[in-house]
């Protein structure tokens, strides 16, 4: 019989998908990837899949790979979609597919199923990754195909012995992983509504944050954080610890109107406390260590990497070439940034790089230690302004 | 005799420049431009120039022109140098020169003098503007040419009846205008030193801010703020009021290592409370009203405008062409943003645009009101991923 | 009954579409737009539509509007898709739709039909334009929906009294207008096959071109050609004359592997003789009249405009904003370029601009007339190289 | 005594520089680098330096390194300054300095001298490279400092036993190497003068070219040419052979008004026959083998690399990071391009890539072999056009 690997979350939608795929003639292999989702009992989820009809069920630990191969480039590339969103959900999709394709190959499955709807970005990210990694695999997108009302879905669940959560459904649609949490739908669908406190889970309201700041030193090697206050830790641990600490200070809330790849605008609430701390510190250290022309051009590559992540093109030659640029640029991004976490903000208040600082106090100073050749400036300005000078002499636009 | 127009500030440097220029054979016409500098008595400054030897002395009101022609584009173009600095000092330089050239033409002066040192950006901004507006004008840069120690300058001042400020000199080098305040030098020259509280003047420390937020509605027309809480005000007034209100909440502090045009890195402390509020609100409203492709490309133009401002190329055909793009883009940026000012942060918490919102709740919703055609998605994804699919089939980089 | 406006070409495909649309319950209004297609009798085509079942049939003259609003921006923006293709077919699609929507509004039609297949770019260009201009109009794409073999189509044609061309079908798929001619399919589908001579219609093989060059002077105003050898002519006339003259010299052949928007690579043969002459001359005049920084940044905008044209996004706010930039840039592109047409090449051999040349012989010269301040250079170089100098001193990458 | 290494060419200017540097107290070490200059007897030049006063004189073979490290990136990056100029002179400068710095270190010299004037790009390229490779080295630029008329220079030469070339001085200023030849000055200084035949040396006038085309197959590996007609050759040999063959066909003439880094426009005549053939073929092969998104973004990196070369920033971290991108992109640029050389043009007439062609005839074909899913197109278009559709529905700009 025809096996299919399902990206399983344990929720109602992907649980209902199991009997639905069985009805279509599939043996369902459920797989849930641990990318640091908050408060989930993954072995319970693994069992639940079997309960509702899966023939096999796997939990795959992906946290370290997620941090290293997916979050790392985001840090190095200062990747914020539309200047704000650190790509939380966009990062897990290609890794989930990578693992599902591996399971498909191991189990002999010929198809992959995902639980995305037809109007979001995740369907694109899932399916583009499948096409890239093994285009021979068939794709099922049951939730996109259901066309059910909520009531019809519950009826179908009851008919097929899928447990239905008791009580009122959460008004929100949530996705989370190690790097943050995304929330949409419900009252948030009106952009003129302020996001209510129950929309947030990882961060305190600024009104509820401590009146004492936390100050910490974050050490970077090649653009990646490697230590907090001098203590070396894994990237996963650094992110986990900073999520707690910065969350307590209300850091990392994002409220944005976003352009989805599928062509609509949506309103999203994100929380990414560790991301806010790490990315602020990283950028600050780059200001100290990157040569000017590189620093001024790198945002062009950063924007491209961000777009490729968001648009589901992680497995692409353009991503790889762009990351070759980024990695080269990060060789000198070594040093320490002192961060203050306080009242909703992560602020870089001091920074140093023993080996790679390009800040030269003797060039920059206004004291007598000045080693800058001020005489050069006059010549510089003359040639600097020559093209516009000639332009005005000829065309008299501004004079 | 040969007249020269001096960009006069009232400080020791430009005061000493007056006898120095007289020694070089000039009749000095002093001119100070009101661009909203804090706490300066401009008519006293006007008189002081005459006291120390100027033959004529002018105060020119430039605040409205400054707001309209120099700050306005910064708002519309989300212009933040190196992602952080709202270009405070870079904005006043071309306007100062514009006014000085006018005075030169009116008074028959054949030269312009400015008080910049030889290692900053301002000398470039001043001189590039002079070359653009009237390349026949000679340029004097006395401070760049002094080569004096502090003691020598004071001795020269005393010899020439220039009043020397009593007491310890401020350790900082400061420039300010309506749009904000820049501070450098002194203890700030070590990037590992945290900026002390006496480095700030417009903003409260977050520790000292009110425990009650201020929430206000900012209305934009064509990308520019026109009203606070529904009350129409001039751009100058809006900025002045927000500087006070947001300053009280500790909003708008910036601490950065910056790449100067002259090739060195410097450490700068900026305060720009109104800028932080207005620019955050503006960007938020753009998220609601700009079409996606335009929104994603506009940052390329924004970066160019920012660079041109910073590098002293305001009077240039590239600036004009880039602003033609920006102005076209801003025709639809109309609406209201609700801003919360609290504990050092200006946050957009809600936004609406009656006439130009592209957010369509019926497309975005997860409720039954959904009008999005989910079936289109499958076809979209197939073509979207076709190039990378074929690439992987041929090259097997990731599979 | 329900009216539909059909973009009619007179060929078999769109002729068969008429009875097919009638079968679907439409009254078909045929419309053919004159955009300078070669060798077509448009009134015969108009009649043919009626013969095969259209209820109304229109020929619309679009040549001047095509030249002014669609070709003009291509010239000013040096728009060459993937560096080579002057966008011939991409230009006519949005204009055709504009006219069809007008006819729909006049005739009360509620739908538009186009004759594109499902694997080309033109379907996207047609439908995106329809959505932009009137999203309430329904869209029919009969050729995309036929799923017929060639034999089935001919049978259907015979059954419905649609005349079938006698003799062997051309092996090529051709589209042409004032700005050039596109050819694909047949033997060209193998990129290793050299394009045979019968693939070309507007240009002579270089082997057959005259042994005497033609030299002409092309005058531009605001970036558009306005005269040949001093004689003012309309843009349409200039293009038509140059197509003949440059075609005789074998100029304007393009053979390229192209990335289509729908995700596949195709092999295309283009001929665009006038485009080759005009665009070469235009670029050459820009080299003389555009200020350096503008000249170096303009290609970024050019690439965007080219992409928008190619991808069917002419009616978009990004196109409009980008053209605002381009138009501003072209104000100074006035002058004359001397072009030599010979043996397949259009070469700019001399150029002048009385009012806007930025070439200053006294600055450029190596004679004694030199007015360039060579002393400035040393200072310029010092500051120019300061960032990389410091970088190497710290990091020792290259030394 | 203080040693200085002089970049020696054997011409009058750098010969006169030797006694001039001696007068300044230097021991002059002359060094000439072989980068494939045409028709020069380098050992005679080596001897001449000693004759006019150098204490040591070296000829350094740099051709292979020049081809590999300087020309190779130009090919892979399609680097054409301002869309036309393949960077001939810009490429040799950093290599010359690299070798001169090595000689300085070996001979204990503390200074380097170059023969550039004060108004060209080469002085910047020389000095920026010196600053990058060893900022402790002093720099002398005698020609920039001479301020001599031609007569004064000749008198100085005669006084110091420097042989003065007999007969009329060439009206042109020429630089050449393996990659091509640059020519400026004289009658060329008027852009309205057509370049006379005596301005060219490597290429025949089209009027004088053979009436028979040459057709050859150029094989590329990782974006670099490795064989002609299947015969493997070194990059140096391929360039040398193509310079002769393509030069005979009049290929590679460039006539352009150029924006120099020092702020002036100049008129330049270049010849680069091999470059025209190789770069045309390379681009054509990229069209076949590069994935679309990569192909469309790569020009951004290409423009940056070109600019860095031209502006003397080869030794910079931005160059290195950009080349990391390029090298990654070139891994799949393997295949063969059939080039026709005829009447001044190098044309790609066929191309194939056994291992990396992304052209899929079954996707592209209009025959029954079609494997493209045309049904997907309708869905694609709907989402593709959704942002502009909503924009028009709200804003009615075009409807």
From TrEMBL, chains A, B, C, D:
Binding residues annotated for L-citrulline, in chain numbering: 85, 121, 125, 173, 258, 270
Record protein name field: Argininosuccinate synthase
Highest taxon, organism lineage: Bacteria
Family: Belongs to the argininosuccinate synthase family. Type 1 subfamily.
Species per Swiss-Prot/TrEMBL record: Fructobacillus durionis
The UniProt record lists the keyword Amino-acid biosynthesis: yes
UniProt keyword ATP-binding, yes or no: yes
Keywords: Amino-acid biosynthesis, Arginine biosynthesis, ATP-binding, Cytoplasm, Ligase, Nucleotide-binding
Pathway: Amino-acid biosynthesis; L-arginine biosynthesis; L-arginine from L-ornithine and carbamoyl phosphate: step 2/3
Gene Ontology molecular function, alphabetical: argininosuccinate synthase activity; ATP binding
Subunit (UniProt): Homotetramer.
Location(s), subcellular: Cytoplasm
Classification via InterPro entries: Arginosuc_syn_C, Arginosuc_syn_N, Arginosuc_synth, Arginosuc_synth_CS, Arginosuc_synth_type_1_subfam, AS_cat/multimer_dom_body, Rossmann-like_a/b/a_fold
PROSITE patterns: ARGININOSUCCIN_SYN_1, ARGININOSUCCIN_SYN_2
Start and end residues of each Arginosuccinate synthase C-terminal domain: 172-390
One record GO biological process: L-arginine biosynthetic process
Residue positions binding ATP: 7-15, 115
CDD domains: ASS
Enzyme Commission no: 6.3.4.5
UniProt binding sites for L-aspartate: 117, 121-122
One term under GO cellular component: cytoplasm
HAMAP family: Arg_succ_synth_type1
């Amino acid at each position: 019989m025809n096996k299919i690997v399902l990206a399983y979350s344990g929720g109602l939608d992907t649980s209902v998908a199991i009997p639905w795929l069985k009805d279509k003639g599939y043996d369902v292999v459920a797989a849930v990837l641990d990318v640091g989702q908050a408060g989930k009992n993954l072995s319970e989820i693994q069992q639940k899949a079997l309960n509702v009809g899966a023939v096999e069920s796997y939990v795959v630990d992906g946290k370290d790979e997620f941090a290293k191969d997916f979050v790392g480039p985001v840090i190095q590339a200062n990747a914020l979609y539309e200047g704000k969103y650190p790509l939380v959900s966009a990062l897990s999709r290609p890794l989930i597919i990578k693992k599902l394709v591996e399971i498909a190959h191991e189990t002999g499955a010929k198809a992959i199923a995902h639980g995305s709807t037809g109007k979001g970005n995740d369907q694109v990210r899932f399916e583009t990754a499948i096409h890239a990694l093994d285009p021979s695999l068939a794709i099922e997108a049951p939730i996109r195909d259901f066309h059910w009302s909520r009531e019809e879905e519950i009826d179908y669940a009851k008919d097929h012995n899928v447990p239905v959560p008791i009580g009122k459904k959460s008004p929100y649609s949530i996705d989370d992983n190690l790097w943050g949490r995304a929330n949409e739908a419900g009252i948030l669908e009106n952009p003129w509504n302020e996001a209510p406190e129950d929309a947030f889970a990882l961060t305190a309201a600024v009104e509820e944050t401590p009146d004492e700041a936390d100050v910490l030193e974050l050490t970077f090697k090649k653009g990646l954080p490697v230590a907090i206050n001098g203590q070396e830790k894994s990237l996963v641990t650094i992110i986990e610890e900073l999520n707690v600490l910065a969350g307590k200070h209300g850091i990392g809330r994002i409220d944005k109107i976003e352009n989805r790849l599928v062509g609509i605008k949506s309103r999203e609430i994100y929380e990414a406390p560790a991301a806010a701390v790490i990315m602020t510190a990283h950028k600050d250290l780059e200001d100290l260590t990157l040569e000017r022309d590189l620093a001024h051009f790198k945002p062009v590559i950063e924007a491209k990497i961000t777009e490729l992540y968001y648009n589901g093109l992680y497995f692409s030659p353009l991503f790889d070439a762009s990351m070759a640029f980024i990695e080269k640029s990060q060789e000198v991004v070594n040093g320490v940034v002192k961060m203050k976490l306080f009242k909703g903000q992560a602020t870089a208040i001091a920074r140093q790089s023993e080996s790679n600082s390009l800040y030269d106090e003797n060039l920059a100073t206004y004291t007598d230690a000045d080693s800058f050749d001020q005489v050069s400036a006059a010549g510089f300005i003359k040639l600097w302004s020559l093209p516009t000078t000639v332009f005005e002499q000829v065309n008299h636009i501004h004079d």
